[in-house]
Design a protein that fits this description.
alpha+beta, 47% helix
């Protein structure tokens, strides 16, 4: 991942943050919205773009734009840094290849234990019944 190329592709917008804060909230634009266009990126290869498209499908818009918002602090600079660090964390997590699952079987001893346990429970309940009088 080439962070210099990625940093050049990022777009930031500062907007007013909601929530508590009194008059200060109404005057200052401290919330940062980071947007990045996956379809126009030059930082990744074709395979990586395809992988990111699949992995980030629930986060991407219809135009394949990833948007992250950060309004954790009152400082616009800290919010921008937080959005950038979250952006890189999301990309690195999406690019990690997951190990294929190995199919396993239940061992014979576990199956035997389960059957023995069922048999014991069945006998216990059978002993609670009334005896048959013939």
């Amino acid at each position: 991942m080439n962070k210099e190329k990625l940093a050049a592709e990022l777009q930031f917008k500062a907007v007013r943050s909601g929530g508590a804060g009194g008059q200060h909230v109404n005057k200052v634009s401290s919330k940062v919205v980071l947007s990045w266009d996956l379809s126009k990126t030059q930082a990744f290869s074709e395979e990586e773009v395809a992988r990111l498209t699949v992995e980030l499908s629930n986060r991407l818009s219809k135009e394949s734009i990833l948007q992250l918002e950060c309004d954790a602090t009152r400082s616009q600079i800290q919010n921008k840094e937080g959005a950038i660090s979250r952006f890189y964390a999301i990309l690195t997590a999406a690019l990690v290849e997951k190990k294929p699952r190995k199919a396993t079987r239940v061992s014979r001893s576990v199956i035997r234990k389960r059957k023995d346990n069922k048999q014991q429970l069945s006998l216990k309940k059978a002993m609670r019944r009334r005896p048959d009088v013939d």
